[in-house]
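Re: the 347-residue chain
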Amino acid sequence: MRVAAAASTLAMLAGTSPLSAQELNALIWCDHADPALLQPFEEANGVKVNVKEFEGTGAGFAIVEQSQPGDWDVMVIDSIDVPRGVEKGLFEPLPEDKLPFADLFPEVKMDGKTVVDGKRYAITEKFGYNTISYNKTKVDPADMETLSSLTGDKYKGRLAIYDYYLPVVGMAALAIGKKTADLTEADLPALKEELLKMKANAKLVGEVTASQTALATGEVDILVGGGEWVTAGLAKENPALDFSIPKEGGVLWSQSLAMFKDSKNKDLALKFIQYVLSPEGQARLATSSCYWGMPSNKKAALNDDEKKTLRFDEQPAFLARAQAYPAPNADLDKKMQDMWTEMLQAQ
């Protein structure tokens, strides 16, 4: 089924004549570097996709600023950061009639961020949650249905915390009953208190690899800030790992694809975006060797096991409880980072 779908999709996107000798230059996150995603598109279109990985929107924009106009064709970007790229004059509006917007989960279209002044500059391709990952043989899964379990005594010394301030600050906000979109400086003392309670129960605070490894190896039993992007890729090796969206909610992450205004290959760039958003492209992106995540297209050609691992059928309920990343202005963002540093340094 998957092979047949791939052949059909790629034949449609390739057209009648290969675009031989063409190259596409893409600024990407690591999930797009997977040959399983890129090679079918390259072979169907007779092109080469050159990729450069980056982490964080600021790092991506820095690469663009150091490049010449036209050096890049497409970019992966946090959906919430699309307006920043538009403000810089980087992106080309996308033709909505040539992309499968009707097939996307409505909650992740992110119109408030991907549409600026009535023009759509990006399309959501993948999403997921910063929430609670855990080993269900070591903890009571029922406890993972509430964020209060992270600060109680029952799991003291058995937590790892993902070292990225925005999603974990978002989780702290949910835990104290605040909306992530409404956070102000006045909320910082309560947020800091909640973070310090989490830190007091943590065995470590680490970046993605360290925190994920700690959960996978049994050094800790719970990862604060984890999600399907941590556990799904490890499910075959360790089926005891799972994630939850607690009753208070989870923090929604969403990544989008945008086309550069100065691209010299806009037709090819659009074909690439169409491929990634096609059912087959979505399945390959969702199950990338770098990290798994939910495809934004409800028609993604995932098999039953993949859907089960991603808890595909539970997404409507998950999305109903999810809130977006905090999006503070520059002043509040600095204060949040300072608060995070204080938490990290606390004994």
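Confidence is low (pLDDT under 50) at residues 1-20.
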